[in-house]
Amino acid sequence: MRLSELMGKEVVNLHNGSRLGVAGDSDLLVDPVTGQIQSLIMPARTTPFNFWTEKPALVIPWSAVKKVGSELIIVDLDGTSGDLRRF
Fold first, then answer.
1. Domain count of the chain?
2. How far is CA 81 from the centre of its chain?
3. Which CATH number is 24's domain given?
4. Which residue range(s) make up the domain with 10?
5. DSSP assignment of 36-76, as one string?
6. What is the C-alpha separation between 43 and 58, in angstroms, rounded?
7. Could you tell me which of 37, 3, 41 has the C-alpha nearest to residue 20?
8. Is the CB of residue 5 less than 8 Å from the CB of residue 55?
9. Angle value at C-alpha 72, between 29 and 30, nearest 5 degrees
10. Under a CB-based contact definition with an 8 Å cutoff, are residues 65 and 71 in contact?
């Protein structure tokens, strides 16, 4: 799969159905030796209510990605297994 094919896909959490953002707005952490994707970094979502507060970015390990479909990227994050980081 090409990187351009990931752009514009909505990232959805399988565990609770929440929308985490759009892959086109995110960054990828790539291993420079192997070229494999290590994680997907979703930027903090801002709303008019939390515009002035700084919210950390969401780091989704690539191992949590369960399916890349035509319109969605489905990830399995329950928040308790330690596979979810914010920075």
1. 1
2. 16
3. 2.30.30.240
4. 3-86
5. -EEEEEEPPP--TTSSSS--PPEEEEGGGEEEE-SSEEEE-
6. 6
7. 41
8. no
9. 10
10. no
